[in-house]
Amino acid sequence: MLRHLLRLLPLALLAACGGHHPLDGAWNQELADGSPGMHITFETTGDKVDVGLPPRADRTHGHAHGTYTFDAASAAVVVVAKLLGDGKADTWNGKLAGDRLELGSADGKLTFRRAERAHGH
């Protein structure tokens, strides 16, 4: 029972702090050349994640959907979504550090920054 209550403690702390979820907002991918990459939005009242894939030449982009978990105590984030498409990893592990989110898998590392709005929106 105590173990179960300890797991709920981070959620209670988030609720007590005005309900602002650390992953709230738009997260834009940072690319070395400065061009727009993908953007991620986290459902802060559930476990869904929506991804706007990198822009195509015609300035449109595709979408991916998945789920995520966030551990407030360690700032660990796990995203389960095909961020790089079929045939690539669908589980990405990372850490939130302020306005920076890094996710990694066997297929590489992705870096995101919190933004006022998603690329292209």
Q: How would you sum up this structure, described in words?
A:
The protein is mainly beta and 121 residues long. It has 1 helix and 8 strands, in the order H-E-E-E-E-E-E-E-E. It has a single domain (23-115), classed as Lipocalin, CATH 2.40.128. The chain starts with a helix and ends in a 6-residue tail after the last strand.
Short characterization:
This protein has one helix spanning 2-16; strands at residues 26-29, 39-42, 48-52, 63-71, 76-80, 91-97, 100-105, 108-115. The protein is mainly β and 121 residues long.
Which helices and strands appear, and what pairs or packs with what?
Elements: H1 2-16, E1 26-29, E2 39-42, E3 48-52, E4 63-71, E5 76-80, E6 91-97, E7 100-105, E8 108-115
Antiparallel strand pairs: 1-2, 1-8, 2-3, 3-4, 4-5, 5-6, 6-7, 7-8
Attribute tags:
single chain, about 120 residues, mainly beta, Lipocalin, 8-stranded antiparallel β-barrel, 1 helix, about 10% helix, globular
Q: In sequence order, what are the helices and strands, one letter per element? A: HEEEEEEEE
Distance between the termini: 45 Å
The CATH class name reads Mainly Beta
Strands of the biggest beta sheet: in what spatial order?
A: 1-2-3-4-5-6-7-8
Helical proportion, percent range: 10-25%
Strand content: 35-45%
Total helical segments:
1
Q: Under CATH, the topology is which? A: Lipocalin
Question: Would you count the extended β strands for me?
Answer: 8
Average pLDDT, rounded to a whole number, is: 85
Low-confidence stretches: 11-18
